[in-house]
Amino acid sequence: MPTAAPEHARGHAEADGIAARARGLTKAYGSGETTVLALDAVDVDIARGRFTAVMGPSGSGKSTLMHCLAGLDTVSAGQVWLGDTEITGLKERELTRLRRDRIGFMFQSFNLIPTLNAAENITLPMDIAGQKPDQKWLDEVIDTLGLRARLRHRPSQLSGGQQQRVACARALASRPELIFADEPTGNLDSRAGLEVLGFLRQAVDNLGQTVVMVTHDPGAAGHSDLVLFLADGRIVDEMQRPTAEAVLERMRLFTGGTGTPVQVRPDGDAHPGTIPEKSPEGSPDKD
Ligand SMILES: Nc1ncnc2c1ncn2[C@@H]1O[C@H](COP(=O)(O)OP(=O)(O)OP(=O)(O)O)[C@@H](O)[C@H]1O
């Protein structure tokens, strides 16, 4: 995975306001003895025009935080705002519209439609919403991402890095207030991963976008302006202007300084300094 962050002028301007905000954000899965507290009264401000990374051990609540901030998941308690709009309490239909109109998403598995070419994939969410893309903006995004020569190609005719660039362009196409990227480099080799991180960086620095990225990779986090560290459903630390080395060092504190995760004890309790286990993949307890 990418380790080296190139020199860049981070956060070209001072952050101008708050793109998203949470207060007392709590998310519990399950009930009774099997309750898992995925987020424990989290307060967070996501600065507009900045690149924020979210890191933490497996099961610390990174994806849950992203899903709650993006209105993809309901909260158990607390409040979430996108800009000035409180999204907690919105009906599903209103949330769908809000996500469609104001948020861009990038996932590890690019989620491109195989039968559509790159250009069609990029504008698909806007086409579904019946919105006309701003052609000038779209051209800027396409050129910034170096996709001009690939627009007629289908996903199968593109490399992994190119596919993720298309996914990045799709997230940017409607000029959303906020882009959420969940492990956007997770499926890429290190060169393609670096490229995508560079483009996310450019989206922030040159296009004025706001990006929140969940990642396991200190190298990827090193491209951000601010890293939020989650543990046991709480934000336990943050780092401005991170470097990969500093992030790696900070992450070592979660692993008892050994570099290998400290295991949960056989009694299943999360003891201080241990990392709670996540539910087995594919079989989460639904609430
Ligand atoms: N649908 C669900 N049902 C029950 N528990 C869940 C569900 N989703 C997440 N959890 C639990 O909530 C906690 C936080 O999970 P989350 O996926 O947010 O962590 P994460 O930091 O993103 O983990 P990873 O790095 O492994 O992706 C974990 O203990 C997890 O098992």
Structural class: alpha/beta
CATH architecture descriptor: 3-Layer(aba) Sandwich
Contiguous helical run count: 8
Relevant CATH superfamily: P-loop containing nucleotide triphosphate hydrolases
- Rounded average pLDDT: 84
Shape: globular
Keywords: ATP-binding, Nucleotide-binding, Transport
Protein name: ABC transporter ATP-binding protein
GO molecular function, one term: ATP binding
GO cellular component, one term: membrane protein complex
What this model shows, in words?
The protein is of the alpha/beta class and 287 residues long. It has one domain: 3-Layer(aba) Sandwich (Rossmann fold), CATH 3.40.50.300. Helices cover 29% and strands 22% of the residues. The strands form 2 sheets. A 6-stranded mixed sheet has the order 6-7-8-3-9-10, with helices on both faces. A hairpin with a 2-residue loop joins β4 (77-82) and β5 (85-86). α3 packs parallel to α5 (160-172) and α5 packs parallel to α6. The model is unreliable at 1-15 and 258-287 (pLDDT under 50). It binds adenosine-5'-triphosphate. Adenosine-5'-triphosphate binds at residues 29-30, 36, 38, 56, 58-64, 276, 278-279, 284-286. Residues 278-287 have a biased composition (Basic and acidic residues). It comes from Streptomyces acidicola.
